[in-house]
């Protein structure tokens, strides 16, 4: 037999560094698999059925959740190995510790299980994105099943709980003006949950939401009607030419929540926002907290995840429209540059204590 050639090793090869990375890689495989388990349990209702902290058998849990016992049993095996649940092998019972339940269900301040859905969701378009790596272009919004549903859950953790008490007061005059009655426009509104909350709380103000997704607008319109929100309307709209199509000086408040960086032409949108604001108006923008430079994000607590989401969604959907492909991690420096090009005068940026992922911008004409 002919001996196979051994791979050459560079002279400066650090074996301990290779071993450390191998260990890190194996850990990542297991932790990533745990996220898949959490996503399944979140969507299927398993986590909800485990919130009382009482030990249950696989049969009891399956019956409570109305799920197939064989799948529930295998999930419990994975959750046991991942130290997600506690297992009593004598009684054959399983228990979700309260410390985990607080973080993975609606019983705590934030339900982190919501965020476990992103990697499985993005994995559905991996073949499409690989095609883009090879030939350019992007992946259209229509390829992303459940995207707006997951984004609505995401904003339910970051925006909705603090919208009235922390975000609006960043522009101190806004709460009282909304009570008196003003015109408000939310761009890239998705399923419109933020607008619904505002419309209910400020019945004298008038609210409009635009989004490119017909699915999201349809859902939002139906929900607004069910809730009797007559001061709120939604419209499916492409905002690529908003710099030209925006009605001049029609709104007192414009908002965007995590919506600028994945636009086809973000600067056009920003110029349109400036055009449609009245002279005493305010633009509130929530967008990703980041540096505009790769080295500036080395210590970002969510940097790797956010760059991955940019590749798998935000950058790609922009490029699919023939757009700029600005990307999730466009960062503060680029944001200030674009806000300046859009002719905003006052530019302020804040971070909120509960939210390590986002910046909150207050901009004035």
TrEMBL record:
One of its GO terms (molecular function) is methyltransferase activity. It comes from the Bacteria. Keywords: Methyltransferase, Transferase. It holds the Pfam family WHD_Rv2258c. InterPro entries: Methyltranfer_dom, SAM-binding_MTase, SAM-dependent_MTases_sf, WH-like_DNA-bd_sf, WH_DNA-bd_sf, WHD_Rv2258c. Residues 180-289 form the Methyltransferase domain. GO terms for biological process: methylation. The keyword Methyltransferase applies. The keyword Hydrolase does not apply. Residues 36-105 form the S-adenosylmethionine-dependent methyltransferase Rv2258c-like winged HTH domain. This is Methyltransferase domain-containing protein.
